[in-house]
Fold these 4 entries.
Entry 1:
Amino acid sequence: MMSTKPIRGALIFNINRPSPFSSRVLSADVATATQESPRIWPEYKPPTTGLLSYLPKSVVPYAELIRLDKPTGTYYLFFPCVFSTLVAATMATPMAAPSAVVGTTALFFTGALVMRGAGCTINDLWDRNLDPHVERTYLRPIARKAVSPEAAIIFTGAQLLTGLGVLLSLPFECFWYATPSLLFVATYPLAKRVTHYPQFVLGLTFSWGAMMGFPALGVDLLTNQAALTAAACLYASNVAWTVLYDMIYAHMDIKDDAKAGIKSIALKHEKETKAVLTGLAAVQLGLLAATGVAAGMGPVFFIGACGSAAATLGTMIWRVQLKDVKNCWWWFKNGAWFTGGGIALGLTGEYLAQYLGWYDDEERNDEKSRE
């Protein structure tokens, strides 16, 4: 490996890259300050198990680029779409049929899969000079030069066209609601260079689906004040949730981010992280409850959705070990289903209660008992 002459006060990265599949050695020398031994990172090995192992070798780098083998991000992008679809279903006139809810949800999942992949590709294009310096990201396809920036740009265009096709399968009003989100998709990676709060920009991006269910089911946010209030509260609630879970995610890279000059909320509030997480959870829950009030939800929503969110968020914040990378990843990955799944189940129960007229039956029984 080429030697690097120490320079006083400067942090020097020396990357030995004889080939995109070789071992990567990252050394950091701060003259006369600390003596760190070189960090030897594993070499790239093609996948031998899981979905990617069944794909042609030429396709694997592109599947890795869109994180096809790591679908957690897709779930986090998908859940706000589910939430808004179920809320909108109860506010539609007449109430949306189960077939419409299921069909709309399926289209949203397809769109989430495609657009999350596009977002990952754009992110890796922005970070192609930073990823080689971070242990978790140095083997990403662009960072290891398995995919060229030019090929990644073309691939991004193909993904965006596919996403457009999915979008056009929904009512046309959805096109106008979805288009502004592309600005956030493109600028999020840049936010990591200029602010310690890129998670907030990510929240604005990943939460966009919290509004999309309304036009998808024919609920006009411009003329329906109650629906607009519900959508705004739901969107803001999901922004808080995104900042919360991505703050935990950011703790996995906190040391490498500091060395590479990447900004994050985890670095800015490292000493008071759990206090910040608690505040974010309180904001999320308050806004989620406000969504239910604006939408006229019943007890199934408040107990099922809000109650499960409070329980799962509280448990995660209490038990997550922020200095343990594997533990942070476990809570980030499973938190999507603990909290997102709980809210979705609560909303599904509320929708079914209203669609099947359970609340109406209870009101009739109360009236009979009073008589």
Entry 2:
Amino acid sequence: MSNPKRIAFQGEPGAFSHQAIKRWFPGAEAVAHPTFEEAFAAVRSGECDLGMIPVENSLAGRVADVHHLLPHSGLKIIGERFLPIEMNLMVNKGAKLSDIKVAFSHPMALMQCRNSLRALNILPEVFHDTAGSARALKDSGAMDRAAIAPEVAAELYGLEIIRPNLEDARHNTTRFLVLTGEQSVVDPAPEVPCVTTFVFRVRSIPAALYKALGGFATNSVNMTKLESYSENGSFSVTFFYADVEARPSDRALQLAMEELKFFATDVEILGVYPQDEFRRK
């Protein structure tokens, strides 16, 4: 993760992923891509050194596309970062809060600010992207409309923030994964607390998931995330995405994974990486 030159993200310039890159890799060029698939491809091809990809939000839940794309992607997770999400009400320079009738942004951003907007008597309007709403506001020149977007979008498009921290919940946080296309990734030093992320598919037998997870309980391996998803339109067999606070070289995790494989198939480790300090707060 040292000195990457180009980092891929999904979204428009000024998105929260862009802000995450700016915060943790200030010397790198943030490269925008319209879709997660294109961002993944840029990292896989070597066009970008790393990817900064959101995987879950404390209010909105998981980013579903990422769970489908990571397995068999050829990419490895080498880090995690937690970004507190701060929604900013921004306007074209010279506009006053009392003049604003409508604020537009991504539906998730509007949902996270609905009480604040109601208190300001501002109507919400759906737009496809947070950063895109800031760009569209700048292009329109409107003085009675506002956008809700990250701080970096205001800087990028020359807008003025008239109400920072517009979000209703102050604990709103997004977890990002740092991805690399390098296959010879060295595990963190032995003394560093780690997360191992992996996927698996349970066998189609009664109580398969219960039995598959038994080894994690009996070996005291802390599983912090377990999510199910279907693939290829099938509802008969389910895939699972999991995080555990351990590393594959730990004897406890070795035993748990051995037991898992009795009741699951297609087990794939997606990454072994240091726990972010935010996780331990």
Entry 3:
Amino acid sequence: MRRSMSETFRPIARTPRGFADKRAADLRAERRIIEAIAEVYERCGFERLDTGAFEYADALGKFLPDSDRPNEGVFALQDDDEQWMALRYDLTAPLARFSAQHWETLPKPFRRYAVGPVWRNEKPGPGRFREFIQCDADTVGSARPEADAEMIAMMSQGLEAIGLQPGQAVVKINNRKLLNGLLSAAGVEDAGQRLAVLRAVDKLDRLGPDGVRHLLGEGRKDESGAFTVGARISASAAERVLAFVTAGQPDRAGTLSSIAEAIGGSAEGDEGLEELAKIDAALTSLGVGADRASFDPSIVRGLEYYTGAVFEAELLLDTTDERGQPMRFGSVGGGGRYDDLVARFTGERTPATGFSFGVSRLIAALRAAGRDSAEKARGPVVVIAFDQAAMAHYFAAAGELRAAGIAAEVYLGTSGMKAQMKYADRRLSPAAVIMGGDEIAAGQVTIKDLDLGRELAAGVTDNQAWRAERPGQVTVSRDELVSVVRRIVDAG
């Protein structure tokens, strides 16, 4: 039995949570950030690599959120050979697989950067999406701390390349070996306790020293009454941890000195200090000061992922949510040393270091700070269509403009002149080309400067002398079309 029209199923047009539709302005902002950061990577000698969207779930290993349930944390499907594949969770796991697969033929160290979407089956939130763009750089095959320093310098240069000045963003640096050494010296060897300590330290910026002190001890009850069990280390060990995580100083050398006093000396801690000292020296040589990259002992990152230096980029601009309320956006990128990832495939430890910018998150952070990088995308010049019989003239004009590198389109709707002009304005077109029967017969064309019209409508008062010499509409010889439109486009 056929359904009647009233019974026809009509789905609700809606965007899945955690995903976003992007129009030209968003894509332009995204592209501009990617191109600016990619230029930094290439200038530092990194080659671009692109891997497929899917990886076998077992290639993600312990970094898969829940390996017993392959679709938890990632978007996964089972292939016809019954192997589980997952949309890539990040760009680093594919790099580890690629490096292990092609290690014999790769230049070593292998320096690569990658740009592309990644997918996470997680609860979305402000600035957190289920699909987003990452922009990574990694060096595989070098254990030198200078390789970490180069990553940090590129993070700083990338932030500068997208328009952030010193003081508006900073890269914070730590080394996992420091806290590990401190805990060993304090007699904290239990793996569960160490993990709880790291989780407590990671909450320092939100809870402050007193809140972390409770989490290092028996635990903490929050405002809702929920109780979080603490690490249950001794009071003396907890004070040593707090002294360490609050040892940051305005300059990197001062922080190193304070850390050395706090950790009390241990083989692993001393190794971490030496690595930070080498990173400091390399950053100084690269001209990266403490206002752009600082040592911060409270930075933890990836609890089971990183093996040495860790770093993250933080936006220092004030940010607000959709209701205009102040909010803390957190990091917009981060990374560190991960010497165990390739070994999952080869059985041999392969040193590696890298970082990632979350491009979608970075754009959201800039918008929350009032630095809206999604500027209005300028549309094409619109050739007004009056008469079906004159379409050849309209397309010839559009073709000339396109050949000269000027975006142009012929209006292909069915509306009249007024609606077409409104269409051109809505497209943010710089100009409209008008060719009625009289203009065509006389070998002329009328060009309306829509950019100027928008300025006047907005009440812009600067540069009046220039505008006085810039007519809002002009009729010129047909062979002047490109030159006149070019002046309007270049002036916009």
Entry 4:
Amino acid sequence: MVPDQWVHEHPAASAGWLRDARAARTLSVATLVWLAAESTLGLAAGVSAHSVALIGWALSALVEAAASLIVVWRFTGSRTLSPNAETTARRAVAVSFWLLAPYLVVHVAHDLDVGHRPEPTALGIVVTSLSLVGMPLLGLAKRRLGARLASAATSGEGTQNLMCGAMAAGVLAGLWLNTLGWWWVDPAMAVALAVVAAREGVRAWRGHACCH
């Protein structure tokens, strides 16, 4: 039963709202399974290819997993109808963005310092191609749910999924362009996504992630 106070403050907290909340939790659980495989295979491929963007993309899966866990926590039990739980989850997702941003920058600096250049690998191409297709679909679905639920935490997790898809596209482009001598595309993509992560962290912290 939905508390009267919650319905007054959040008119969307109806049967439809609760159904969307369950859908958000289910998508987050499915994402955790996906990310476990993606991170493991992506790291193996990235180390083999000496690709900072591929390694960064694979490790970003761990940050995405944290965001998914946060959303699962947010929509479990009595927290489902708790405004305080949404605030806590939203800020936790913001922190996960801020963990990703500095990692990408530091990893780029390290690889540039030691002279690593990305090399194409069959495993890396397969894993990133799958994420290029799947992650945007998950991200868009979560952002739509986040808007209906007025949940910046859910929308923020969806944004991280979209970033994962963007990183996959950048990694694939970087691996190909490196064969043409454009080695800088790979680290440039990672730095650009670090900037996006920092910006999205600010938006999530302020509760704006569900509105754009």
